[in-house]
Structure formats: structure tokens, C-alpha cells
Design a protein that fits this description.
A hairpin with a 4-residue loop joins β9 and β10. The strands form two sheets. Strands 2-3-1-5-4-9-10-11 form an eight-stranded mixed sheet. The chain has a three-stranded antiparallel sheet with strand order 6-7-8, with helices on one face. Helices cover 47% and strands 20% of the residues. It is built from ten helices and eleven strands. It is an alpha+beta fold.
Length: 360
């Protein structure tokens, strides 16, 4: 691994040198690519520098101790320096191992978050609205930009389905763990006898695609306009501003009716379609069971779940890592970091174990 780090340092120095070249600076695309690589490698190189400094301090102190003949007071000081430097090595090694893990190419992307009510009828739709609020509060807490692209509401205020764009630093790297079936256990507002119901909501987290990632052929798109429905102001049912885009090769359909402007709705719908198609393409490349994005969220059946929200007990359980927190109110109000940090740590631990390797 030390040799790997030295190779990375050589590449880091090459990138640093290239960024001083006027010809590179004049090429916007090339310069932007190198800057992204430079920013990605900088934390690794800074950690490697601290590791090498600790190794040097440790070796110097050990050499002095092995020479012998030191005054008792000076020897005690050198022993303390040796112990301090040695104690730094293990956490620095762990940090370097984490930084050396292969990165998900989508980690720095913005996302399209899609939420749909699953099993449970109106109660599922109501909980879909609750989850949508949870993610909006989490985005606000992290100073991310949150924008509703499309929202289909029920008469009781639930959400049949919704698509939102979330933009900010490392959005996908944190929220990618939210994809799957979320199960809720609570007494619905529509329940007259106080019985606890179990319902599900499916969540899909799609890395947002840029035009350079996936070009859409206009001849493969069918674009229809229709009148908006549901909440939306005076323009509802008066102008055909809503957009429905069908991708003919795959049959994928995207609707957007949140904006008054037909142009804006079309732009948002294309963004969602492009992101869905990119997710499908990437899943196929990784030999996923199903290249369609439904592989990400399952069928919505009650038996499939990544997380359960139990309201009577105030409990949240993430079934993938066996984590249970009795902090349901906090989580519903956007305090997701404790859950997400645990998922990230578990994922890193698994990948570290798979990577193996020794320090030489």
C-alpha cells in the first residue's frame, strides 16, 4: 500500500505541475477535469504527509533510545515522543486505507430523489409525504438546494409520487443508502379503531446526469402536453403547461407539471429522464439483476424493507446493519446523520475487509 501511495503522489505532482501550464489553463474542460482530480487527491496526500512525518519522528526517537547513554530526563522525553508518534500511526493508517478505497464515480453528483407510495393505500401516500418532508429538512440542514420537479398529491394530502432535485456537496455519497423500501408501522389518521397498520414507501436515489453523460435522440422521444391537475394555482386546468415525455426505446415515461411554464416543465422532465436512463445504464454495466431502476426499490411489498419506522415505540430500525434508534421524532425532522454515518461506516468496513492488504 505504501508503494500505491507513492504512485498516487507522483500522479498528484504531475497534476499540480499541469495546472501551472498556461496551455492547460486555457483549455477549460481539461483544466476542470484536472482540478477535480487535484481536489480528490489532496486529502489523501495530506494524510500521507502526516503519516510519513509520524514515521520519521518515531524512527528518530527509536534510534536515540537504541543508542543509549541518554540522561534520565532526556530519555524520558524521547520515550514520550516515541510513544506519541507510534500512537498516531494506527489511526493514520486507517484513514489512508479509507482514502485509498475505490470511489463511487457518482459520489460527487447531485441527485434526483423519487418517492412513491407502495403497499397501504392512502396511509402509504401519507407516509410518502412524511418522508418527503424528512428529506427536505435534511437537505436544508446541510445547506443543499432542494427543488420539487414533480408532485402528484392525494385528496387527503398524501403523495402518490414525487421527484425532487437535491444539489450540493457530496449529495449522492450520503443519500445513495436511502434507495429501497421504507416501512412504517403506525395508527393511520384514517383508522377509527386505533389499530396499527403497516405500509410501505419506495425511494429511488438517482445520480443526476448531465447532457455530456447521456445524449438523448429527439427522434426517440414522444413529448405530450396536458393540463395540470391538483394544487398549483390559477393556471391549473386552464393551460396545457404539463409535460409528459416517453422514451420510445425503453417505454420510460416522465411527467412534470410543477411549473407554470411549459418550457421549464420540459427541461425538468428531460433532467429526470436523463438521470433514470443513466442509472439504468450503470446498473447494466455492473451486471445488476435488473437494469431497470425498479431493481433499486423492489416491488413495495411489506416484506421487503431496508428500514422500519415504528411510531408507537418511537423507533427507527435499519435492517441492513441492525441499527435501532429510539429517536423517531428527530429522524422525521431531518436528523438523518446518525443513521447515514453508521451505514457509511459499515460500507467502508466491508470494503476494507474485502481489500485486505498490508503496510510495507
Amino acid at each position: 500500500m505504501l508503494e500505491q501511495l507513492r504512485q498516487v503522489r507522483r500522479r498528484y505532482q504531475e497534476v499540480e505541475l499541469s495546472l501551472r501550464d498556461p496551455a492547460v489553463l486555457a483549455d477549460n474542460a481539461r483544466c476542470a477535469s484536472l482540478m477535480r482530480e487535484y481536489r480528490r487527491l489532496t486529502p489523501l496526500m495530506e494524510a500521507f504527509g502526516r503519516y510519513e512525518a509520524a514515521c520519521a519522528d518515531c524512527a528518530e526517537a527509536r534510534a536515540l533510545l537504541e543508542e543509549g547513554g541518554l540522561e534520565p530526563e532526556f530519555r524520558e522525553m524521547v520515550q514520550a515522543q516515541y510513544a506519541e508518534s507510534r500512537d498516531k500511526l494506527e489511526p493514520l493508517e486507517h484513514q489512508l486505507r479509507l482514502l485509498l478505497l475505490p470511489r463511487d464515480e457518482n459520489d460527487e453528483r447531485n441527485i434526483i430523489l423519487e418517492i412513491r407510495g407502495g403497499a397501504g393505500g392512502e396511509e402509504a401516500a401519507l407516509f410518502a409525504g412524511t418522508l418527503l418532508r424528512m428529506y427536505s429538512l435534511y437537505a436544508a440542514a446541510r445547506s443543499w438546494k432542494y427543488e420539487v420537479l414533480n408532485l402528484s398529491a392525494t385528496e387527503l394530502g398524501g403523495v402518490r409520487e414525487a421527484s425532487v432535485s437535491i444539489q450540493g456537496e457530496s449529495v449522492y455519497s450520503r443519500l445513495k443508502y436511502e434507495s429501497g423500501v421504507h416501512r412504517v408501522q403506525r395508527v393511520p389518521a384514517t383508522e377509527t379503531q386505533g389499530r396499527i397498520h403497516t405500509s410501505t414507501v419506495t425511494v429511488a436515489v438517482l445520480p443526476e446526469a448531465e447532457e455530456v453523460d447521456l445524449q438523448l435522440d429527439p427522434s426517440e422521444l414522444r413529448i405530450d402536453t396536458f393540463r395540470s391537475s391538483g394544487a398549483g394555482g390559477q393556471h391549473v386546468n386552464k393551460t396545457s403547461s404539463a409535460i409528459r415525455i416517453t422514451h420510445l426505446p425503453t417505454g420510460m415515461v416522465v411527467e412534470c407539471q410543477d411549473e407554470r411554464s411549459q418550457y421549464k416543465n420540459k427541461d425538468k422532465a428531460l433532467k429526470v429522464l436523463r438521470s433514470r436512463l443513466l442509472a439504468q445504464k450503470q446498473q447494466a454495466q455492473k451486471d445488476a439483476q435488473d437494469a431497470d431502476r425498479r431493481s433499486q426499490v423492489g416491488t413495495g411489498d411489506r416484506s421487503e424493507r431496508i428500514r422500519t419506522y415504528n411510531f408507537p415505540q418511537g423507533r427507527v430500525t435499519d435492517h441492513r446493519i441492525g441499527l435501532t434508534l429510539y429517536k423517531l421524532d428527530n429522524v422525521m425532522n431531518g436528523a438523518l446523520d446518525e443513521v447515514l454515518d453508521a451505514l457509511i461506516t459499515a460500507d467502508q468496513t466491508r470494503r476494507l475487509q474485502a481489500a485486505g492488504g498490508k503496510w510495507t
